[in-house]
């Protein structure tokens, strides 16, 4: 039995459950114990507390440390969250698209659809990489197939305007519908047009 996972699950109850009164101080202590025992999910959850200032002072430097620890244990959410911090350049974290790209790629390769979508955005916008609509299309397709609604919408835009693909308005409409069905408002708006 993995006690570090049990600790993490208990921490989740205190931090985010609707059935248990939130106690971020308890959640922090439990996530810390889970992380200290080598559970990468505990490290990610502790990092989230620091990134959002839940029960602790907001501390992006500490969040980076914890997400890095989780990413080094091949936790795809840790790599993705760390990539987000570098992509956006939060207080105390210097914006670095190259580093964000590396982290998104690692997380995407581990099956994180959000990371594939974010990596596609970097290629689409030419941030930290040479702008490459074909690579962006490949990543949006992968992310869309993993259930990322925003990626389906963006892929629909590519088909509408022929970015990295042959223009195909029927395919675009299909993708907008898929995005809309997943709850993406832009997809719904584009489907109507």
From TrEMBL:
| UniProt catalytic activity | a beta-lactam + H2O = a substituted beta-amino acid
Main location per the UniProt record: secreted
Lineage, top-rank taxon, reads: Bacteria
Q: Where in the cell is it found?
A: Secreted
> From the UniProt record, which GO molecular function terms apply?
beta-lactamase activity
Instruction: Please name the top-level EC class of this enzyme.
Output: hydrolase
Keywords noted in UniProt: Antibiotic resistance, Disulfide bond, Hydrolase, Repeat, Secreted, TPR repeat
Q: What Gene Ontology terms describe where this protein resides (cellular component)?
A: extracellular region
One GO BP annotation of this record: response to antibiotic
EC number from the UniProt entry:
3.5.2.6
Q: Which residues form a coiled coil?
A: none
What does the protein in this record do? Hydrolyzes 6-aminopenicillinic acid and 7-aminocephalosporanic acid (ACA) derivatives.
> Which family does the record assign?
Belongs to the hcp beta-lactamase family.
PANTHER family membership: CYTOCHROME C OXIDASE ASSEMBLY FACTOR 7 (PTHR13891:SF1)
**Protein's name according to its UniProt entry:** Beta-lactamase
* Native source species: Helicobacter typhlonius
């Amino acid at each position: 039995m993995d006690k570090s996972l049990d600790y993490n699950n208990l921490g989740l109850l205190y931090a985010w459950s609707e059935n248990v009164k939130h106690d971020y101080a308890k959640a922090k202590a439990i996530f810390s114990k889970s992380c200290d025992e080598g559970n990468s999910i505990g490290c990610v959850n502790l990092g989230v507390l620091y990134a959002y200032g839940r029960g602790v002072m907001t501390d992006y430097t500490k969040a980076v440390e914890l997400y890095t620890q989780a990413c080094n244990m091949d936790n795809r959410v840790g790599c993705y969250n760390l990539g987000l911090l570098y992509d956006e350049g939060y207080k105390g974290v210097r914006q670095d698209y190259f580093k964000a790209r590396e982290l998104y790629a690692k997380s995407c390769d581990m099956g994180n659809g959000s990371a594939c979508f974010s990596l596609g955005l970097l290629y689409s916008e030419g941030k930290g990489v040479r702008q490459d609509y074909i690579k962006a299309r490949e990543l949006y397709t992968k992310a869309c197939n993993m259930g990322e609604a925003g990626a389906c919408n963006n892929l629909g835009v590519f088909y509408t305007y022929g970015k990295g693909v042959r223009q195909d308005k029927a395919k675009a409409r299909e993708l907008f519908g898929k995005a809309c069905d997943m709850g993406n408002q832009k997809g719904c708006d584009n489907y109507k047009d």
